[in-house]
Task: structure prediction
Amino acid sequence: MCKNEEEFLRNYDSSKYEKLSITTDILLVSISNEKTTDYSITD
Result:
């Protein structure tokens, strides 16, 4: 058993465990009635 976090991390072997894969998709949508020519400017 490990006495502290440092000892735990020193002895930790990640190859003992299966590697997980995670995929994330993000979609941002904004709706506005305001007309603008440059969408990168915000006030």
Remarks:
- The chain has one helix and no strands.
